[in-house]
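Sequence only, no structure available. Ideas?
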Amino acid sequence: MIASKHIPCFLVILSLGFSSLHANVMEAKVNSPKIVNQSVELDGVSIPDHPRLLFTNEREAEIKELAKHDTFLDSLLNFLKEEADELLEDRPMEYPAHVSSILPVSREQIYRIMTLSLAYRMFGEAKYAEKAKAGLINVCNYPDWGPKHYLDVAEMSTAVAISYDWLYDFLPYDTRRLIAKSIKERALMPALKEYETGSHVWGKRETNWNVVCNTGMVLAALAVAEDEPAMAGKIIKEGVGNVPLCLKYFGPDGVCYEGPGYWYYTTVNLAMLISCLDENLKTDFGLSGLSGIDRTAFYYVSSVSPSGLIFNFADTYRDVPNYGPCYFFFSRKYNLPRVAEFYRNLIREVILSPKKNPRWHFFLNIPWYDPSTASVSTEVPRMQVFNNQLNPILVFRGNGKDANAISLMAKGGAGDMPHQHLDAGSFVVETNGVRWLVDLGVEPSDYSLDGFWDYTPYTGERWSYFRYNNFSHNTLSLNGTLQNSAGRGRVLRFCADAGKPFGIIDLTSVYSNLASRVQRGFMLMSDNAILVQDEVSALSDSCRIVWNSVTDAEITIKGNTAILRKGTSKFILKIAAPYDAVFTKSAISNYGPAAPIIGYSLLQVSLSTDEDTPCTIRILMGSDEYGMAKAEAGNINIHLANWR
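Reply:
I predicted one. Tokens follow.
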């Protein structure tokens, strides 16, 4: 649900239209927009003339002045010019025939046309505007913008709206008419049909589609507001009113349940939406105040490991942070200088190695540029909890000054939600800049697999593909059975301030009909060692429990101890209980139509338990043998209920 303090705002938006934009934005009706010269007036507030999207003339002047003294911003501008110069040589992109989606074309157009338009504004050279104009005319002459897969339309609309707005004074009248007509017929009119029918094709989804498509429509509406004021008002009202249906899942701590890959996709579009609403209507109608939105960039940055990798759970393709620009938007919006510092360090890699350029929205980091730095250096907390009703995240960190310091990130889970895997209770762990137990993430080619989007508990075809079920994640399986995708892995208790910080995740509903209680606890024993403890109360005799983990390291097993090696680094896992349990290893076999999994092995502990004998599995892990021995010498034989 939407945070209660914001409900009145969205009720007004949905029932009345825009708020008055005066003293109380939550209570007044909206008047129909009307044309006033070249700007639009909405309920007494005049929308500024072009450019009005994301990069006003005032902000442009600020950036140009700042670049005179900010060497990093200056290097970004130099990189912009280099990339724009290369784009001058690119041939126009032809409309791809016989494909189900033109989304890659739409995304490339965001990069090409927006980059060229921005270069024109920053450097004043007509060659960039001419090339961007040719790109705009080209896509407006496409037969369509991919309406069967509306993300294609939304992203093409974003590309066209921003570039049309930024080049407005440069474009000839006939070109402006062509573009405005294309926006109206290919984006706004289909959007109105979606809104009027109350369809869930994209407008009211609870996924990234909602934010991406509604943002694209709002930007398009604002771009042509002087030509289509009534239509613009309707689009903005409906689009803004729908977005909280997705954002409600970000509370309370900013976690995107769809995973870190879709975190970027959602938040960069949200950033564009909030920015345009603020700059044009002087309010974002409470979107930026929804639960978790102020913390979402902090969450993402805090969950990047010491080696610079993300916890790539759910349908996340890469294990490195996204290089896109939304960090700067959130750091400026919510005064998060550490987020700004993180992003400057991140994109320094792109400037030095242009092949890492993600293209797409990349150069919005110039309009959104944030030079802020944290005034005081503080130590990273040993434990952080980012709660969420679907995918709560636990982050543990040993002392970063110690090369052997351990880093572990763990999660709850909600397998039947979009883009989820059966991974409740899973975790990744690293030391010495090496990730030892991994998440396989997603292979995009699998998106076209039969039944891939069927999340039905137990029988959903998605779970027949190994990469997406619990047998390929660092979690438990009971009696060789799939986790219940309708179950929920939730944080039961935690104490971040304890001498040995800990968190406990309740997984009972994920193993319904198999156990009366399943809980997994994580305790940071020292800077170098962590304990993973599972407690299972089975509902039948001879219940087979498998403690599962995935690694791409070389494995050596000595009974109850497993040693992982990569190069000169090593990592140790030791079974502290049951005393007679041993590790086994096996290579992952590739079978079926899904993308192959190459170079990974399963490291497992298998044992049986009876209904009247609760089972406890304790695995101690770390890369420092002395630190592990010291941790084991302490009393670790404590039930989760007694962790304090």
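Residues 1-17, 19-38 have pLDDT under 50 and may be disordered.
Hope that gets you unstuck.
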